[in-house]
Amino acid sequence: MQVWLESGTRQKGVDLLVGDDLEIDGAALYINGKQVGRKVNVSSSEGQANARSMSGSVEWILLELGEWKMIPIENIIAACDGVPTKVAARISSPEQVLGAAFALQIGVDALLVPEEILPTALIAKSQRGETNSEPEVSIENDSFELSTVEVIEVKEGGIGDRVCVDLTSMLDNGEGMLVGSSSSSLVLVHGETVESEFVPTRPFRVNAGAAHSYILMADGTTSYLCELKMGDEVMVVSSQGNCRTAIVGRVKIERRPFILFRWKDENNNEAGALLQQAETVRLITSSTGIVSITDLVKGTSLLGWSGGVGRHIGIPISAEVTEN
Residue 319: pLDDT above 80? Predict the structure, then answer.
């Protein structure tokens, strides 16, 4: 992490000094006379969206903070994690230094501080360990690498708010959505395409589980099921690993009984999900067969996906995140 000084005399540990090798001209940011990025006011949602849109296209983004300090910093760090764009933040009080330096366990790449805050900034710089690693998430438009998970527990899951995701397009047999209680390990829930003598099919629907659950979106981010709304784009995945984008037409939430089940993936990581206790809620086995949640037993091998990294507001980040 670098320390940039707004004014005064360059001291040991100061990387750049405004008026010397760092210039801020309007919204343009210059280092050693070369324009390297932009200054962005992120005190509003529009400003944060503007900053996120620059991720990957500029070398530096300098954040001007408003009343909210940490949330904008975290959001932009998450958007820039894994791309060459570096994040700097203008800090106005000593209390903000550590928060910015260690936000999301990643921290900003530079602190721009006035001289009175410099000692605190230099201490944070000495405390920072640069141990970031690149996220290992890769999603292509037409293919998807599914993994196998083994069920290790099945039990009653109480009553809660169940979310059905209704699409504007039809699902085929073998297609579904990836959901779960941990964003790093999801299970493939089959669409309601299987015919039965008791209930009609709903081939546009996936009964996706409890409201808190994650769902994989079309762009590779995750959302909570309760956050989905009409017009959102979700990822539809088949048992053969083919994937496509589908549009949410409606989200239907009702109180229903749940079955809780947990699994272990090929990396020995444990995760789980809660699905409605109903015969029409089905999962896909590793042999591409279909099993109802009401028939699920310990030892069953299911198709799923291991994301491998933690997330902040649905975006993969390299920080350590634990979800149990």
Answer: no
